[in-house]
Please model this.
Amino acid sequence: MGTEGVGGVFGCDRELWRNYDACELVQRASLPLSILIDQGMQDSFLESQLKLDLFESACRLSGQDLVVRRQADYDHGYYFIASFVEDHLRHHFDGLMRRR
Model:
């Protein structure tokens, strides 16, 4: 969530923002499972709010396993989600089964 979105929810207390910032959270404690992200490259929020490059950098610094799949010709709408949701369900299922 970009600054505009976070500020609208949490106000001007930037310290409070850190508790909900994905980059901050992944640097505090990495997850034992990999993170899978599908990103539509036509998403209108990609550069202004999502800032995927910052999250990728934070994951690299913290050693968090991350898989990013950049999807050309997709935005952030229903068809994007419908196209990749099964992959994400399988990803989480497989990760949980490996931890048993």
The first strand starts at residue 35 and ends at 40.
